[in-house]
Amino acid sequence: MTILPGFGGPILPMVSTIGVWGIPPAGLGTTGAPTSGAWESADRAVYIPIQVPVLCVVRRVWWANGATVSGGATIEVGVYSQGPTGAPKTKLVSGSAVQGSATQVQFVDVTDTVLPPGQYWLAIMASSVTNTTLFTVSIGSGGVADIAGRFVQASANPLPSSATPAETANANIWFCGFSTTTIT
Amino acid sequence: MTLVRLPPPGWLPHSLDTFTHGAVLTSTQTITSTAWPTTNLAIYVPLRVPVAMVVVKLWYGSGSTGTGSNDIGLYDSNGARLVSNGNAAKPASATEDVRDVADTTIGPGLYYLALVASNSTDTYYAETDAAPMCAAIGVLTEALGSTVLPASASWAVNQTLAYYPRMGLLRDTTVT
Q1: Strand partners, B164
Q2: What is the total count of domains within chain A?
Q3: pTM for this one?
């Protein structure tokens, strides 16, 4: 299937939480480039909003492994619809795998899933905090930054079909997303 | 009835480059003069083109060291070369090196700006975020046997690349 670019702009090959379609880093007070950081809580899902301005197809999900991956954690990334109040709602697609090589982008093929233009949430879950790092950038602590940027859900392994988001006390924007291509 | 032309989405100046219209990540971009990572490594950087335009020139940020040569080009999202400058000497000066190319009409869509350098000592302006940042934003590479960009790219994800070059296209002829 070929999808022509629409008024919303070209289809990005790699869509991410802090990329062109992700949350505006400057507006949320991010500082610096993403760095390797320890996962925050076993089996926790973190929901991060994205805006998709043009029809596209999710072909793979991905995450950026940090410097330490020896924990053998299962990582899962998914795409959720946005509910009427602006929170994540229904899982549209996800993929998971045992964490692979350090400091590499890890891809997982998923069922090709068409996303119409709109607001979505990326979700990422790791099954362990032991020797499990991923690339992340902080949106600061306290204040409104954490509220504006993300939700969490405990005991979310595997990612649930319907999100039950909760307020978060952490400020990590984990570097993950989906790919609209299959280039390896 | 009045017909109106909708404005293009976003900022659309005379030059589109890998930072203004690329896939770059953060608001803390630090562009420095840095040696090209590998001899004859072609780096393909995504470029978001919002409207149809005529590409008249290509450019890159040249660092002060220049003993070799390079080639700069524009590819479509399938890896087909649309236009390139061909192999040419790299200046030994910190400057914008503008290359005149055949006028090339392109539509809105995703394209890739490509640059290949003949050695790993010549310097170019680039952002050097640690790997795998470049892989995560869609930058692709290809190891070439020469310093000439191919008609058809055989590109791949490069998990160790830590080099995001500044280069762009011009749709206006003022800058030389």
Answers
A1: B127
A2: 1
A3: 0.92
Structural domain includes residue B95: yes
% chain A with pLDDT above 70 = 86
CATH code, B77: 2.60.120
Q: Which residues, listed in sequence order, are joined to residue A78 by a DSSP beta bridge? A: A94, A123
CATH code for the domain in which residue A101 is found? 2.60.120
Band (pLDDT 50/70/90 cuts) for residue B150 is very high
Q: Cβ atoms within 10 A of the Cβ of B87, count?
A: 15
Number of domains forming the structure of chain B = 1
Instruction: Decide if B109 and A175 are in contact by the 8 Å CB cutoff.
Output: no
In angstroms, the separation between the Cα of residue B120 and the nearest Cα of chain A is 23
Indicate whether A131 belongs to any domain.
yes
Residue A2: C-alpha distances to residues A5, A11, A16 (Å): 10, 11, 22
For residue B138, give the nearest of A5, A14, A104 by CB distance. Answer: A14
pLDDT for B12 equals 80
In a domain, B28, yes or no: yes
Distance from CA of A18 to the nearest CA of B (A): 6
Domain of residue B145, residue span? 15-39+50-126+136-170
Report yes or no: A158 at the B interface, CB cutoff 8 Å. Answer: no
Q: Is A148 helix (H, G, I), strand (E, B) or coil?
A: helix
Q: What is the mean pLDDT of residues A65-94?
A: 96
Q: Is there a domain that residue A57 lies in?
A: yes
In a domain, B3, yes or no: no
The rounded distance, in Å, linking the Cα atoms of B41 and B28 is 26
* Residue A149 pLDDT > 80: no
Question: Is the separation of the CB atoms in A14 and A59 below 8 Å?
Answer: no
